[in-house]
Amino acid sequence: LGQERDFYPRGWWDKPKLYAHAESCIVNGDIRPPLPDAHARGLSGGNQQKIIIAREFFRSFKLLISAQPTRGVDVGAIEMIHRQLLAARSEGRAVLLISAELSEILALSDRIGVLYKGRLVKTLPNRGVTAEDLGLLMTGASL
Q1: pTM value?
Q2: Helix H segments across the chain?
Q3: What is the pLDDT of residue 133?
């Protein structure tokens, strides 16, 4: 649980600390509506996804597995999620990005692994690789 224990020392919720954290997540994650006591189930799917992103980036982690992190969110949220992923990488954290968006893979990845029929067929550095190259590898062709 790591830092989450800071919110309930001695078994009681520290509401001021919890609300301050919620407000920080709301501002940094651009979560709407900006109400720290709103129930997640009442928010849009995009805002629910932003809550999950904020929760995961709050935690201390060495490896983050991020599958389709921007599916279903607006352009502003995509930019925020990309910034968070790049910041994690800059801090020396490992990020495994799984995405059907080739432009996202090309924009965020240092190394790219391509699967074909459930098998890893190629791992390559992201230098001069194009979406067309990845498309060929995804169909079983070789470069």
Answers
A1: 0.79
A2: 15-29, 45-58, 75-90, 102-108, 131-138
A3: 96
